[in-house]
Amino acid sequence: MYEAIDRYVFSLIERSSPERTAWNIEKVRQGVPTNWNYIDGCMITALIEMAEISGDARYFDFSRRFIDAFVGEDGSVRTFRPEKHTLDDINEGRVLFPLYARTGDEKYRLAAETLKRALDDQPRTYEGSFWHKQIYPNQVWLDGIYMALPFLALYEGRFGSGDYGDILRQVRTVRRHMRDDRTGLYYHGYDASRSAFWADPVTGLSRSFWLRSIGWFAVALADLIELVPEADGRGELVQTLSELTEAVWRFHDPETAMYFQVPDRPGEAGNYLESSGSAMLAYAMLKGARLGALDPVFSDRGRQTFDGIVENRLSFEDGELTLGGICLVAGLGPEDNRRRDGTYAYYISEPVVQNDAKGVAPFVLCYTEVKRLDA
Fold first, then answer.
1. pLDDT, tens digit, 9 for 90 and up, residues 304-359
2. Which of 18, 77, 122, 215 has the highest CB neighbour number within 10 Å of its CB?
């Protein structure tokens, strides 16, 4: 099966270009050309990891061609609009660092500077956390921790002063406000102003847990643990990831080791085992154990989840592998979209699709950790 996965991943890049990818289902459905976005950023991150673990230069070469379609020699980033103040658009910038390290091409450093300036201008809550987007004032989403903070850690380690304090403060704020003491799970969103229609007027929290948002947070923690030195607060990140993975494992499906779209409500009508969040949690467990941040048992648990995805969500169709069970998208608001209210009914209502990068990229990242485990 793993050889088939290798063929599947490579087939995706064979069928993709910077103008149109085989994995960005949202863009395909909208009929719009590819732009600078977090979905492609997740996939290119995964492909660069595939290049590293496999030694196959074709993954890296494709990744470089893809990014070069957006990054100018002066460090400008085509289609990037800093005035939108969206953390999602920072995420793709993390691939600039391995590209710069491998090639020494100055445009990648300049592009990282472009994104860092945008992040410096990002609005913040009264506690110093980044707003998720300009259109979501005073809101902190778990997704945004992954979108912005690994990029910021990479920048600090490579081009900055090595100050990780801002990163640790924002993770600490998330843990303080968004962690549920009863379950150990994290809510999707927090409104520091307590004014959003979906927010609890007392706590500012959204109403339900969403698997992929918890997955984004777990992946961010695992990646940050790799980037933040021990002397600069790595231990705090390790503790946060350790308690999260212990908590979430209590909600795994015993037959597949996967997790439900709304993780604390298995068996309820409409709930389903979701691939992207399951792959993210498996990746975080595998990587956390490999880095020595988690108990070695989490290597086995992450592997179980990966194997559960392979057995239950990968299938052959017309001779090609298909990854199914992926929630296409979910969010909170904005004000003119009150359907996105953070309730259980909302999260199970979003489309479930195949081969979208929000599921494929975490699956491929998880696969690279499995390959490291088997090496």
1. 999 999 999 999 777 678 899 999 999 999 999 999 999 999 999 999 999 888 99
2. 215
Residue 206 CB neighbour total at 10 angstroms = 28
Task: For residues 179 and 23, give the distance between their C-alpha atoms in angstroms, rounded to a whole number.
Answer: 32
* Range 133-159 average pLDDT: 98
326-327 and 314-317 beta bridge pairing: unpaired
Is pLDDT at 238 greater than 80 in this prediction?
Answer: yes
% of the chain exceeding 90 in pLDDT = 88
- Using alpha carbons, select from 261, 213, 259, 221 the residue that is nearest to residue 241: 221
Instruction: Spell out the domain ranges in the chain.
Output: 2-374
Could you tell me the CA-to-CA distances from 59 to 48, 54, 168, 366 in Å, in that order? 6, 9, 33, 16
The letter for the amino acid at 229 is P
Is the CA virtual torsion 91, 95, 97, 100 positive or negative?
A: negative
Q: Got the DSSP string for 94-138?
A: GGHHHHHHHH--HHHHHHHHHHHHHHHT--B-TTSPBPSBTTBTT
Q: Which residues contact 55 (CB under 8 A, 6 or more apart)?
A: none
Fold of the CATH domain 2-374: Glycosyltransferase (1.50.10)
Largest CA distance in the chain: 54
Q: How far apart are CA 253 and CA 128, in angstroms?
A: 37
